[in-house]
Amino acid sequence: MNKGQTNTFLESSKWKQQFPGLTALFTTKNGGVSKGYYSTLNTGLHVNDENHTVVQNRKIVAEHSGWELNKWIYADQVHGTRVVQVTSRHAGMGTEAYHEAVKAADGLWTFDSGIGLSLGFADCVPIYFAEPETGYAGVAHAGWKGSVGNIGGEMIRQAAEAGVCADKMHVLIGPSIGECCYRVDQRVIDRIPDQINKKDIYETLGEGQFRLNLQELNKQLIIGAGVKEQHIEVSGLCTACQKDLFFSHRRDQGKTGRMSAVIGWRES
Ligand SMILES: [Zn+2]
To answer: How many CB atoms sit inside 10 A of residue 256's CB?
Structure first.
């Protein structure tokens, strides 16, 4: 993923070319109006920033990407694996008030165009899903719990139930904390599903200390769910390393803003 004409978000140039009717963006920390820890483009309503500045920031991103904020839908994320189908009737949920967000969901998907599905991030992995023939779009939030719980596979499973072939699905794995900066303990490693080739996923640093590659873990799980490897793009970007671009929960010791991942087919 890389910067386009605006500094407020990144996009995949490959996806832009391949899917001209699709918006799939990941916001940066730049170009907004928040102050202090949230400087400047915090898009998270639940992190003690001023509500009206967060809404202002979201409106800036919406405008830069050719949308109206009231067409987007946010979720109340809980580090689970619950995935919810939304429709145009849900447009605007959680965009200006956190308590109006879709309850307890870490994945959103739809067949409706004209709505943008939005989730918040500060190190966890944003996973975007698109299938142009059916007009399917989806986004998932995968921290270590969602990753080992295979929320990506759950997205593919629900899409398949609704008639979307996994082998036609395209997946984009966005910026998250990278293997370079993500130390975990044995408790996390023990929960990695058995089907995963663990050698590619983590490195042992010392007694009970590991470096985990969440983007690669999710990629393997999504291939396991039936998506073609050549249909998966991995950003490889690390939110903790790229201080000038991203908020990072771990690097900023919890006092930080949130980026948004937004996906949606524009109304034609
Ligand atoms: Zn890093």
So the answer is: 23
